[in-house]
Amino acid sequence: MNLAKSSVKLFVSNISGALLQFLGITYFARELGAAPMGVFFLFQALLGILAIPADFGLRGAVEKRISEGKSQGIFLSTTIALKSIPIVIICILILTFQSVINNYLGSDLATLLVIAIVLQESAQLAVFVLKGELRVGETAILNVVRQAIWVVLGAVLIHYGFQADALIYSLLAGTGLMACWGWYKCSVRLKKPSIPHAQSLLDYSKFNVVSSIGGYFYSWMDVAIIGLFLTQSDVGAYETAWRVSAITILLSKAIASSIFPQVSQWDADNAIERIESVIYNAITPSIILVIPAFFGTLVLSGEILGLVFGPEFTIASGVLILLAGEKILQSVHVIFGRALQGINKPKFAAKATVIAVLLNLILNIVLIQIYGIIGAAVATTVSFSANTFLHGYYLSKFMKIKFPTRNVLWSILSSVIMAVGLVGLKDMIHVNTITELAVFIGIGSLIYTSVLLLYEPIRTKVAVMSPTNL
């Protein structure tokens, strides 16, 4: 598999999908306001939390087993059989307690939640099967299509008077198309399920599910707890800040997704030195866009939220700064986490995740009640710091981890110079329009890139990025 090509494909698709999502959220937030956006985000949060028992780590398990190249059809059919049981149970429970769920969401959406969980699990399983086939790059278009349907259909429905349910209907449509297209692209053919293969999947998934829980907790638990203690407007503002910060991590996730099946294959061949090399070379491109994004957010967080989404979203300015800083840690974590899973050590990733999840849950419950949405951002940042450190510690038990310290320090220096330049410019010219904000961001990007490329090792890495560099 061509790692660089797959990473680039995923990065381009992630950028395209993120741009579509960003434009969609911007339009929807302006048209609907923070409270209806909060209803939609709570729906997504509940959908994300329900995905934990619905999947039980099986998506990652089937990706791992298919990437090993043996009994692929049996593993796939066995996975589908295993996943069907919890999905049916969850759907029954949703319908049984739909009044409670509707009250929490603030709208009658329980029935749509049943449809959403089925479509989501089908679509995501198809994506993970393609990744297991070492066809990571071919998954790139699927997310773009889903986001495009969500934005376009959502805008049409809002035009005809729908509120938060417009975003949910369009989400279902996009996810359904993603599922159909994904399964059409898969080449693994179903075979008769097998109990030994089920045991093999569960042996992996019982640890992988803990890492999955960590991912879902990280993405949605803060939103869910904000929904319990604060208002839907607070949910809308916080999650909007989260979505903006998430754009900075797209390249990191693309690289991590690309290296997993290859690391898995090298692990099967006991090629440890190649795995060490790919981890070292992946860290620099993974972190190189996240650091300047944090420093830029320090200067422009209020303008980004206020001008783009509306004045009521500026209550999350401090949240945006904290989450942008936390993404620096995540850019390293995604590499360590996927490497641990790729060398078939999900048990250690699970240990780190359990500690981080418990810390995250406790801090969210305590800090949100005291400090509001800024408390949720602090809880996420602290818990993810611990998670990143523990993943690196456990990975170091199995191989040498070299960290590109000089590259990272040069990126920090370039970012500081950029931030100082923006502060000076901001003192002379106030940012009052979206156009002026775009110009400021463009100037900042130019300053950062110019200084960054003065450092020869980074300039060389950018110029000669190829499969041998990843």
Rounded to the nearest angstrom, the distance between the terminal CA atoms is: 11 Å
Number of helical stretches of at least 4 residues: 19
Taking the sheet with the most strands, its summary is: none
Rg, Å, rounded: 22 Å
Q: Give the helix/strand class.
A: mainly alpha
InterPro entries: Poly_Biosynth_Transport
Transmembrane segments: 12-29, 41-62, 74-97, 109-129, 141-160, 166-186, 207-230, 242-261, 282-309, 315-336, 348-367, 373-395, 407-425, 437-455
Membrane topology: Multi-pass membrane protein
Protein name: Oligosaccharide flippase family protein
Give structural notes.
It is a multi-pass membrane protein. The protein is an all-alpha fold. The protein has one domain. Helix content is 83%, strand content 0%. The protein contains 19 helices and no strands. The chain has helices at 3-32, 34-55, 58-67, 72-96, 98-105, 110-132, 140-159, 164-185, 195-229, 232-246, 250-268, 272-287, 290-308, 317-342, 346-371, 373-395, 405-428, 434-452, 456-463. Helix 2 (34-55) packs parallel to helix 8 and helix 15 packs antiparallel against helix 16. The longest helix is centred in the middle third of the chain and has 35 residues, at 195-229. The protein is globular.
Please describe the structure with a list of short key phrases separated by commas or semicolons:
globular; 19 helices; about 475 residues; disordered C terminus
